[in-house]
Amino acid sequence: MPVKIRLQRHGAKKKPYYFIVVADSRAPRDGKFIQKIGIYNPLTVPATISIDRNKALHWLQKGAQPTDTVRRILSFKGILYLKHLLRGVKLGLFDEQTAWERFEKWNAEHEKKIAARREYHKKARMQQATPVVKKVEDETKSESSSNPDTKPAAE
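^ thats the sequence. predicted structure below, dont judge the formating
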């Protein structure tokens, strides 16, 4: 049975979120699946991804083929890197402890990058959200100073 790891769409019109599922490749997109391994919400900035690393790794090692989008998600979360490291263990290039140390080091660096990206987006959102009252005051000041028809009271 050819097995795929793919997205299953849920949500309302124009507001999608996806389950990351393991399914038979012949089943319909939103149809029957074998196991749910995570959630992906592309509407948040940055996108929210929650995935069970052990389940995904288990299915990848069994031969399940991820779709293009799911492959990028698994790569972003480090699951494909972990699979790569564990393959090195199987080939005898290094031991399992070294593989997990390398993965933990990569994961720590990756989490720092994600946290920095979240902070950047949070600051950008705060700068865009200026109070309405302040905008109205700024507009009235700019109109009075830029309007040549108004005469100063001192004249």
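Residues 46 and 118 are 7 Å apart (CA to CA).
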